[in-house]
Design goal:
The complex is a heterodimer of chains A (10) and B (212). Chain A is low in regular secondary structure. Chain A is 0% helix and 0% strand. The termini of chain A are far apart. Chain B has 212 residues and is mostly helical. A two-stranded antiparallel sheet of chain B has the order 1-2. Chain B is globular, with a radius of gyration of 17 Å. The N and C termini of chain B lie far apart (43 Å). The chains are: A little secondary structure (10), B mainly alpha (212). At the A-B interface, loops of A face helix 1, helix 3 and helix 8 of B. Chain B: It is found in: Endoplasmic reticulum membrane. Chain B: It is a multi-pass membrane protein. Chain B: This is ER lumen protein-retaining receptor.
């Protein structure tokens, strides 16, 4: 998936 | 989480702490671009709006809080407490030349046309160019304090490590975020000539001076 809805990176 | 991203986050945290300590202990923000620091505070503000609504992990929430507190503390020290030492004559990059195009691009190119996602995209694009006022200021003064060059090296290394993290995540999880990757590459490329000067000069104990 590109650019997940929730961004888990800082 | 992987080692590259962890090292990247620690490098980012180190940069933020180096700068804050430099200003606090020398009681001076000479050679530091206040405009870049305002842009970084804006980057964290627009990126971490989901701090209380979208819990990822204790680490994630703690780091977001630390980044937010430190970036605003740095701006406060520069524009209020140690305002007398702020070198506004050399910190003349026009922030609107960055914020306006980045804002427009965030509306046009994003993953999801929702307020939170557009603000997140804005923060990603803005972070890529937020260091320009600082690099511009150094090119105007022609030099940088050694501590400031360590700050810039740590800050530039953080996104370079994130690029390695994205390659790693692509091959191990099949995950990739093109917006973050493209912006991260632009951001890291902007540091290249600084990296060259840092490695050839500062690491040899010389003062970081730009060829006039």
């Amino acid at each position: 998936p590109s650019g997940g809805e929730t961004h888990d990176e800082l | 989480m992987n080692i590259f991203r962890l090292l990247g986050d620690l490098s980012h945290l180190l940069a933020i702490i180096i700068l804050l300590l430099k200003i606090w202990r020398t009681r001076s923000c000479a050679g530091v671009s206040g405009k870049s620091q305002i842009l970084f505070a804006l980057v964290f503000t627009t990126r971490y709006l989901d701090l209380f609504t979208n819990f990822i992990s204790m680490y994630n929430s703690a780091m977001k809080l630390i980044y937010l507190v430190c970036s605003y503390a740095t701006v406060f020290l520069m524009y209020f407490k140690f305002k007398a030492t702020y070198d506004s004559n050399h910190d003349t990059f026009r922030m609107e030349f960055l914020v306006v195009p980045v804002g427009g691009l965030a509306f046009l190119v994003n993953h999801d046309f929702t307020p939170l996602e557009i603000l997140w995209t804005f923060s990603i694009y803005l972070e890529a160019v937020a260091i320009l006022p600082q690099l511009f200021m150094i090119s105007k003064t022609g030099e940088a304090e050694t501590i400031t060059s360590h700050y810039l090296f740590a800050l530039g290394s953080y996104r370079a490590l994130y690029i390695v993290n994205w390659v790693f995540r692509f091959y191990t999880e099949g995950f990739f975020d093109l917006i973050a990757i493209v912006a991260g590459c632009v951001q890291t490329i902007l540091y290249c000539d600084f990296f060259y000067l840092y490695i050839t000069k500062v690491l040899k104990g010389k003062q970081l001076t730009l060829p006039a």
